[in-house]
Amino acid sequence: MLLPLPTPDEMALWDRETIQSVGIPGITLMESASREAVTALVEEYGPVDGCEIHCFAGPGNNGGDALAMARHLTDLGADVTVFHTRPKKQYRAETRTNLLWAQKLDIPLIHLASVDLGALPQPDIVIDGLLGTGFAGELRKDVLALVRTINRLGERAFVLSVDIPSGLNGLTGTPQPEAVRADVTTTFQVPKLGLVMPEAHEFTGHVHVCPIGIPLKIQEEHPVRHHLITSDIFHAFPAPTPSMHKGKGGHLLILGGSEGLTGAPHLAAMGALRAGAGLVTVACPGGLADSIKGGSPDIMTLPLETGTHWSPSMMEILLPHLQRFDAAVIGPGMGRSSNTPVFVLSVVAEQAIPMVLDADALFSLARFPKVVNELKEQAVLTPHPGEMAMLLDTDAATIQADRLGAVDRFTERSNGTLVLKGAGTLIARPGMTCLSPFSEPNLAVAGSGDVLSGVIGSLLARGVAPMEAACLGVFWHGMAGRALQEDYPLRGNLASEIAGMLPHIIPSNQE
Fold first, then answer.
1. Is 450 annotated as ligand-binding?
2. Which Gene3D superfamilies match (predicted)?
3. What CATH number does the domain located at 231-506 have?
4. Known binder of ligand: residue 124?
5. 298 in a labelled binding site
6. What's domain 2-224's superfamily in CATH?
7. Does the annotation flag 232 for ligand binding?
8. Of 246, 240, 300, which Cα lies nearest the Cα of 278?
9. pLDDT by residue (tens digit) across 249-265?
10. 15 in a known ligand binding site
């Protein structure tokens, strides 16, 4: 359901515990890593017999992996040369062992300090083992020159990066300031957090996850904070039963709509219905009910007073009805009139049922940090970066520059479940952050977020726990965006078509 995404420090702990507590030698792990990486290379590139291969080996474990790969590739008939960044005597531990083994096998070992980088012959394949996931800060000038050399050679060669492209930050997935552009990255045991961040995609190429023997017991005893959502999340989907009726499908309340913004609650309602909600009712100012319904007999409405504006007194009308609903979505198209925040706060204060807080409800909440701090897990907030900036009293550029940090700052102050939308949507609660694998241009359309809020609300109404509902809703929404690329390769799809795609893309084993 969730794939661990260790940070560099967390992965180093797994390695250390495997070696020290279990007693599996580090050289064994390195040998497994190198063999798996060679297998991935042959799978992607094809036979290497007769190929000219340059292995660039730094002094760390990645360099050791590259040196071990040189042995295996030589045995497969390749013409391998290892370029090492430090004098041989400076290599330590398992990396030094592999260097000595390569030397005994007469594999050419050339210190890069004696090489004119511009005069290097053009290879068929480049193995990038310069830097590992522990790299932080900015590249030194000499290493930056090597990264640029690999990228120049890579214009005509196949490039494989060991564990992570050199120069890429293992935590954020950003180049520092440049990184190797690999055709394939072989990462070991599980993906590292930085590898799956949207910013990393243009550098990693196809990522192969290679098992190397880190025991599951070690992983379970030292859990990580970040996880990647996989299709197994559909195991949380409440499967229909032959005897079910509409009441068992959950009754979702949607509070939204204002003059000129009646489409948002309509799209949220359609998202909820297409996600399987049994009943959906939109509560709104009475004068907007027909427009929100939009001619759809599937959507019920609950007019709150006459007129087209929200008022605090509407809560008195709504309150007796709340017990009829299993969950609520608050905010789509609600507008930002002066009375709206008072109404929103009065509903949120009840926290009587699970709720999704979206769009203009977030604008209202941002004005009252104390209320945000008192939210419970059953409150799911779905901000885009601009709305997240309001919640944290900053600007959208700051949020986008450090999305993980923004999520951490929010979960330190609130127990609410957070969905920070965007490429690689983040879903979080205190102590856990999950990452969506989707970055779909077809989702970048007005109303897409309203559909998502309806999907999550529908799952909450059917009894799915908040964190699982948010993860499943985001993943399902992402699948819909990807599926729409087939008919709309250059975008142009509508938000309503995202909703319409939902029932057609549930994995067959979950139907």
1. yes
2. 3.40.1190.20, YjeF N-terminal domain
3. 3.40.1190.20
4. no
5. no
6. YjeF N-terminal domain (3.40.50.10260)
7. no
8. 246
9. 999 999 999 999 999 99
10. no
